[in-house]
Amino acid sequence: MLLDVAALTKTFHGQEGFPPRRTSLRALDGVSFQVGHGEALGIVGESGCGKSTAARATLRLVEPDGGSVNYDGQDVLAAGPKALRTLRRHMQMVFQDPASALDPRQRVGDALAEPLRVHRIAKGADLVRRVKAVLDEVGLPAAAAERYPHEFSGGQRQRIGIARALVLEPGLVIADEPVSALDVSVQAQILKLLARLKADRRLAFVFVSHDLGVVRYFCERTAVMYLGRIIESGPTSTLFDTPKHPYTVLLRSASPVPDPAAEVARSIPEGEPPSPMNPPPGCHFHPRCPLASDVCRAEVPPLRASDAGRVLACHNVE
Amino acid sequence: MNAAQSAPGALPALAVEGLTASLRLGGTWYDAVRDVSFQIAEGETLALVGESGCGKSLTAMAIMGLLPDKIGRMSAGTVTAGERRISGLTEKQMEKIRGDAVGMIFQEPMSSLNPVLRVGFQIAESLIYHRDMSRRAASKRALELMELVRIPAAAQRFRAYPHEFSGGMRQRVMIALALACSPRVLIADEPTTALDVTVQAQVLDLLRGLQDEHGLGILLITHNLGVVASNAQRVMVMYGGDVVESAPVGAFFANPQHPYSAALMSAMPRVDRATEDLNPIPGQVPSLQEMPAGCRYQGRCPLRVAKCAERPPLVAVSEGPHHLARCWVKAPPPGEGA
Amino acid sequence: MSAPDLPLPVEPEAVPAPRPGRLRALYQRATRSGALLVGLAMVSVMILCAIFAPLIAPHDPYAQSILHKLQGPGPVYWLGTDQFGRDVLSRIIYGARISLFVGFVSTALAVVIGVAIGIVSGYFGGRVDRLISGANDGLMSFPQIIMGIVIVALLGPSIHNLILAITITAIPAFVRIARGSTIAMKERDFVDACRALGFGNGRIMFRHILPNIADEITVLASLWMATAIRTEATLSFIGLGAPPPIATWGGLVRDGFDNLLDSPGLSIFPSIAILIVMIGLNLVGDGLRDATDPRAPT
Description:
The structure holds 3 protein chains of 3 kinds. In chain A, 32% of the residues lie in helices and 23% in strands. Chain A is α/β, with parallel strands linked by helices. In chain A, the strands form 2 sheets. Chain A has an 8-stranded mixed sheet, with helices on both faces. A 4-stranded antiparallel sheet of chain A has the order 2-1-4-5, covered by helices on one side. In chain A, a hairpin with a 4-residue loop joins strand 1 (3-16) and strand 2 (21-35). In chain A, helix 4 (108-118) packs across helix 5 and helix 6 packs parallel to helix 7. Chain B has helices spanning 3-6, 56-63, 91-97, 109-112, 119-131, 135-148, 154-157, 167-179, 197-214, 225-231, 249-254, 259-266; strands at residues 14-25, 28-40, 45-49, 72-81, 84-85, 102-105, 185-189, 217-222, 234-239, 242-248, 315-316, 324-325. In chain B, 49% of the residues are buried. Chain B has 2 domains: 1-101 and 185-274 and 297-312, 3-Layer(aba) Sandwich (Rossmann fold); 108-182, no CATH class. The longest helix of chain B has 18 residues, at 197-214. The chains are: A alpha/beta, B alpha/beta, C mainly alpha. Chain A binds chain B through residues 46-47, 153, 155, 183-189, 191-192, 210-214, 216-218, 237, 240, 250-260, 262, 264-266, 268, 270-273, and chain B through 51-52, 150, 152, 166, 168-169, 196-202, 205, 223-230, 249-250, 253, 263-265, 267-272, 274-275, 278-282, 284-285.
């Protein structure tokens, strides 16, 4: 395994109201996943489920409270500041909003060259050549190096963000909703680009998205999160064709499909995902679950293996 | 197929004829919406789809008289809601129309609700303003509306502030507000784009239910073809300010005619089946200043011919009488070859 | 679903046509604002006077002449003479050297120190930040002039101490703006992106955050320079400025006070010089704020 994340936990603390009341938000509650070389793992779920925190905690952009992250045999969480900076060469990130992810005061060429300089990988003519090569790889002409990020369209900016993630030649890319801010036609361009890079460079991906269609196209395996926990995971196509966990079933049936003949989800249970500030006991999903029984209200269902490489956390479904 | 044909003679809930809206960029006026015409019958949903910058939201703003002062104007066309003509009115007259004859909901409900006023009061206020209701009667009606849009524990949440509601509940408040004066038509501009899918499904379900009960005509503006498929009877696709295709939903998804519609569909990854390959549309939407003369899609179109330098008309394709497209190749006007 | 056959690999895209560069756009917006130009002109005249004082000044500012004391404005001494018969115009021109120097140096020092502290405080947050911003708020709650008086009174009047006093009173404003802007910048993903790329904190703070908050700091600096010059004048006026016979604007106003009724020009003319620079710098500051505001129409 290239990336092995185990039992990650993270609680955010805050204050609310007056007099101030301490609040805590359990964003990650024992999240584990593995990604192999050249493999893409999708993490899906609704807002507040912790999928972004899981992605950022893997890179220690958010410091997790507990658990372990292993990249290629190296303990990421135990790494000191210097070792961590070296490790980060191998694990890169692509962000949702490329406008916010690029330094507006830095020319594209400088943004791509800086990581190579900082890590003393290249200089002089070699540096220029590498910058040109990575621009070409993401489908931008060499002239782009002279421009500032705001001069580009959203899709082009995302290409620049991808180029910057690639310039250090990482083995793993964490992509947090990389195409959510883009229009459908541009989204397809970026997805194809990512798919090509994945194949050409044997890149591994942790791909966070709320769009099941995008995940189905891009990821071999997918994990579904609900309020800080992974509740089901497995090969993407079987997961979405025959979802087992009641929440996966709900998510799948609520996702719109461009087919007027498709069954429309009419029986979405009322109510919304409960706040992660105050999750219900037992299985977090029980208040909305059609199968909920007494055991669901009391005990957290453990993740256990189901058939065909699938894993599931539900008391009532095999 | 749709209600417009099933009730001949009935006035459409909303009729738009030849609407053209222009934006001023760097001192020059550009047509950002060109010659858009449609009718929505009571109880019917018409979806207006397209990518950002295609003019779909601008169309809605023009209908509501909400184009930004000085840099936007409706340069041609008429808008009629029921039997009232609502285009060409003064701002003062328009204020009476908005929220009364035509309701509107937006993508981000938080920015359309006043954060320092209780939601119940905001709904009641609309009734006091438009219907001259007493405070007491308006409050009673506001509570009924909150129950109508299925806000749980409506009586308690009547006195809550907008920030105390989740995104989905806020959108329900917006719907209650839009429906307060029982308009016959509702313009919904990306009403569920900011919501999670399960909440989106609930809100869309609510809208369908309200439509069935009250015979509401809905103009549903969205970029999401999946939302179109399950919620609209007819669909219009916009590109660069032009309506490029207009069809009943079934025919549209079975057989999209305009090259842009077809490309859009094959660029969209789907959750319900394996997508072997995506076909992105090359390049990007040209800016208003750079729009080509003639067909505005020509720069990205694989079927481009010499004739595309002229603007094609929106005409019926062979597939059916209500299926129109604006393309010289796929929908040549009668008597003209491609 | 019939998709047209689109032979479309991901192909190189056209790069946008070059837009006017940032500086050029700034220049265009700046020149459209008349206030900025007027302000720049006012300040420039004063700076030129200061630089070329020996060439411009019609007389030696320190040359005393009992015969010509307390003259009104006239053809030889344009703005008259003081009680020692020194030429007022020449003393104002030479005074510009000290007043502008003190204003510029103390503001520059305050920017460097304050911004460094502010960025560090905002970037790291937590306990360090609470300590720094607490102390900073405490400093800000003292009236500047009292702070200045206390510092100069403790250390004794000299130009160095004057600069020190003004710098210390100006630092908190720069700490505050740099801290606030840094916290806002930290919300942007590019800071996380830099961390993910393995950049050190120093590089992120001073190579990436600093250039992005520089506009706001420049605006504040030009406004604060006006305040610094005023503070210099005030301290000099109450006798805590540069020791005589050095000419500073505040000192000139004070010296003229003794003969205010006979020769009001002695105090009024240096006051006008102070006024011109203050108005000029404020116009520059406001103009820059408008020119760098990203929400301003282009």
